[in-house]
Amino acid sequence: MTAILVGGTPGTGKSEVAAILAERLKIKVISLGDLSKKAGCIAEEDTERDTEIIDEDCLVDAIIDTLEGESDRVIIEGHYIDLVPYSSVERAFVLRTHPATLKERLTSRGYSKEKVAENVEAEVIGVCQMDAIESFGEPKVFEIDTTDLTPTETADKIVELMKPRARSPRYDWMELLENEGRLDKFLSD
Ligand SMILES: Nc1ncnc2c1ncn2[C@@H]1O[C@H](COP(=O)(O)OP(=O)(O)O)[C@@H](O)[C@H]1O
Ligand SMILES: [Mg+2]
Fold this sequence. Notes:
By secondary structure, the chain is α/β, with parallel strands linked by helices. It has eight helices and seven strands. Adenosine-5'-diphosphate binds next to α1 and α7.
């Protein structure tokens, strides 16, 4: 079965947006975080960085098995969407959030200072959308800036971008922050 992917740095709103989108399209959401746990694909806990390390081969197999068992298209949300096999992917939506807003969201989630900094830096650089483009190519990857959108508005935007000739802009926080003279504040040394 085919999948609509929702990816992005932690805190950009993937889980919430995917749930709203699923309700709207009447299809199921597969969370890659849940799937990695269920399929036993968490290789080790990196306690120092307070993150889990995923066995990628294991997760790829679990994704393939799951998609084979589905009779309808699904939404796949998570941090590792680039692991979904290319031929199953309809479109990949990468949620983007201005680093200052992301920092607030992650801090209020109770993340440690280091974990906030690490994720904010990944968003500044644009790691998730670069990985998605590398895996699926420019035409399948759409970016949405969720900074000033509610999760419902973001889900609406995805529905709009599912249309055949839809286009979306690319975001470069690095350039934006550099022009604003505050890039240093968002990168660790
Ligand atoms: N567009 C948004 N605007 C404001 N807050 C949001 C938005 N999307 C998500 N949030 C909030 O940010 C936090 C992270 O959302 P979540 O869906 O858990 O993100 P992810 O799954 O990408 O880590 C939640 O507290 C959520 O309510
Ligand atoms: Mg989530």
